[in-house]
Here is the input.
Amino acid sequence: MHPEFSGAPPECSEWRRSGAAPIVPPMSRPRVLLAEDHAHVAHELRRLLEGEFDVVAVVDNGLALLQEAATVEHDVIVTDIAMPELDGIAATKALLSQHPDARIVLITVHDDVELEERGYAAGALGYVLKLAAIHELVPAVRAALRNERYHSPRSMGGTSQ
Here is the structure.
């Protein structure tokens, strides 16, 4: 470490030189809003995402997703398709009607071409199978941040683009 830094750990909000004003703050990480109705799955998805992104909120149903998306700053939404109150595809349509620039990645256990097509038709940028999340969720979120569509190579209808 350079001798003029105070040695603050990386999780501090800003680095400081001894006795000086703050220097360039660290770059902020992309923010992800996560919607998953199964707590243990949400926990594992959060762990996958937190290596590269800040998970700003986790909700367990589609209506809560709409509420959080309106109040919490985020760059990408990762949402399960099958959720109580409002499914992920309906939530995607509602979110994009209110916020056309929203970036949404769908995650599901369903390897179903028609469901995948419905998700993209609703405006989602990604479709990731939960069984492949360990390898594909982070690349799908990266693609969404670039406003690019991500197709899971493991899904019946997709090839990575």
User: Anything to note?
Assistant: Residues 11 and 26 are 10 Å apart (CA to CA). The domain at 31-151 is CATH 3.40.50.2300 (Rossmann fold). The chain has a mean pLDDT of 84. The chain has one domain: 31-151.
